[in-house]
């Protein structure tokens, strides 16, 4: 079953007239390489449709626009250029990117020749690449003229980083192959789950124009990866680097930041009711230094069963014990002294899932682990007192 609602042929066509003709431009290597780097990750390495291995170059009005697409998503970006002749061409993406990286700094001239060949000259280097007809390149949807929402780039970057690792990689569970973005006028949240764990982050005190009520959007994992790169790589000199514009239509998600536009097909289907699984009565808790817990987990995980990654957490009077054992590698135990004054408790977890959470909280000095009993989901959160950002991680226990 296709994950997406429409076929490639149904893409919205561009409203502006694309430049046509024998493209002839000069562009700086630094500008070109920066934009090729941004676009090349969208290009399919192995595709049955040859044109998708190419960049589309379009030149007019002293700008070079570069487009890459794999039909599920696209990235359009641009840089300044001296346009001697406006026009368009397609160039093998990987080959061009690798070649431009090897050129010295300076001006590069790019010129379309007969039979879709593209000449690239820089200093004493003169190369010709075999392109393909511009007409074969798929139409890429245009950013909607109305209805966009401005989102703080740093806030979105943090939310993606704290949830993307919990997205399911099982293709059969396609409603879990993305993260749910929930926008409200004064807050935004993101949640991801693979059925074994759930990461949920909510930011309060936001001011989102154009959002009324509640807007829920499921963003595919691959698009989140590209979005993360887009948020990380936009230059600080770009005045619009503080905000990202988000919009959607019936089939497509649009993200615009600076001069770059990322599009992605929407995931269809209903994201599960995550609020129903958020623990309500985990009344036993322990607060641990993040660094101590990470060190102990990484050491003990070396001796966990390779397939399950299972480790035991045992809470006793003012003590947290982490242990593992396997017939192949042996056994290990680490003890962390920390205040704990509830009934003793033992629970099993996948060590990799715990380590993922600790990596996501980064430099937070302490984390809080909350439990109900050994059969119920555990809840973890940073102990940072940040009232504007609430991050929690729900983890199903393992039988050990």
UniProtKB/TrEMBL annotation:
Keyword vocabulary terms for this entry: Cytoplasm, DNA replication, DNA-binding, DNA-directed DNA polymerase, Nucleotidyltransferase, Transferase
Q: Where in the cell is it found?
A: Cytoplasm
Domain (DNA polymerase III beta sliding clamp N-terminal): give its ranges.
24-141
Q: Does the keyword Nucleotidyltransferase apply?
A: yes
User: Which InterPro entries does the record cross-reference, listed alphabetically?
Assistant: DNA_clamp_sf (IPR046938), DNA_polIII_beta (IPR001001), DNA_polIII_beta_C (IPR022635), DNA_polIII_beta_cen (IPR022637), DNA_polIII_beta_N (IPR022634)
Q: Name one GO molecular function term.
A: DNA-directed DNA polymerase activity
Would you say which domain of life the source belongs to?
Bacteria
Region of interest (Disordered), ranges: 1-22
Q: Name one Pfam family in it.
A: DNA_pol3_beta_3
Residues covered by the DNA polymerase III beta sliding clamp central domain: 151-273
**Compositionally biased region (Polar residues):** 1-17
Q: Where is the DNA polymerase III beta sliding clamp C-terminal domain?
A: 277-399
User: What does the UniProt record say this protein does?
Assistant: Confers DNA tethering and processivity to DNA polymerases and other proteins. Acts as a clamp, forming a ring around DNA (a reaction catalyzed by the clamp-loading complex) which diffuses in an ATP-independent manner freely and bidirectionally along dsDNA. Initially characterized for its ability to contact the catalytic subunit of DNA polymerase III (Pol III), a complex, multichain enzyme responsible for most of the replicative synthesis in bacteria; Pol III exhibits 3'-5' exonuclease proofreading activity.
Q: What family is it from?
A: Belongs to the beta sliding clamp family.
Q: How does it assemble?
A: Forms a ring-shaped head-to-tail homodimer around DNA.
Question: What name does UniProt use for this protein?
Answer: Beta sliding clamp
């Amino acid at each position: 079953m296709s994950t997406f609602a429409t076929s490639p042929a149904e893409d919205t066509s561009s409203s502006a007239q694309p430049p046509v003709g024998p493209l002839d431009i000069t562009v700086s290597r630094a500008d070109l390489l920066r934009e090729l780097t941004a676009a090349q990750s969208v290009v399919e390495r192995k595709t049955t449709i040859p044109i998708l291995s190419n960049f589309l170059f379009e030149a007019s009005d002293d700008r070079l626009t570069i487009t890459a697409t794999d039909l599920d998503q696209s990235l359009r970006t641009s840089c300044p250029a001296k346009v001697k002749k406006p026009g368009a061409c397609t160039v093998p993406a990987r080959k061009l990117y690798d070649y431009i990286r090897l050129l010295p700094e300076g001006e590069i001239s790019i010129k379309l020749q007969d039979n879709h060949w593209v000449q690239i000259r820089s200093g004493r280097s003169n190369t010709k690449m075999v392109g393909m007809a511009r007409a074969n390149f798929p139409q890429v949807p245009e950013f909607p003229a109305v209805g966009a929402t401005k989102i703080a780039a740093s806030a979105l970057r943090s939310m993606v980083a704290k949830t993307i690792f919990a997205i399911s990689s099982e293709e059969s569970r396609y409603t879990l192959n993305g993260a749910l973005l929930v926008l409200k006028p004064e807050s935004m949240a993101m949640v991801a789950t693979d059925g074994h764990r759930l990461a949920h982050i909510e930011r309060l005190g936001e001011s989102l124009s154009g959002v009324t009520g509640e807007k829920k959007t499921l963003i595919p994992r691959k698009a989140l990866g590209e979005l993360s790169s887009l948020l990380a790589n936009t230059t600080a000199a770009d005045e619009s680097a503080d905000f990202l514009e988000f919009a959607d239509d019936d089939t497509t998600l649009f993200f615009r930041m600076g001069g770059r536009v990322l599009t992605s097909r929407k995931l269809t289907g209903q994201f599960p009711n995550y609020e129903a699984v958020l623990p309500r009565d985990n009344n036993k808790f322990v607060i641990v230094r993040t660094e101590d817990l990470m060190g102990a987990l990484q050491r003990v995980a070396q001796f966990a069963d390779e397939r399950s990654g299972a480790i035991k957490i045992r809470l006793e009077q003012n003590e947290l014990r982490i242990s593992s054992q396997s017939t192949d590698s042996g056994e290990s135990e680490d003890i962390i002294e920390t205040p704990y004054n509830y009934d003793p408790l033992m629970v099993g977890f996948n060590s990799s899932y715990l380590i993922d959470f600790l990596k996501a909280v980064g430099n937070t000095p302490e984390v809080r682990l909350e439990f109900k009993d050994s059969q119920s989901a555990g809840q973890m959160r940073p102990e940072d007192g940040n009232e504007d950002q609430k991050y929690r991680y729900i983890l199903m226990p393992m039988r050990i």
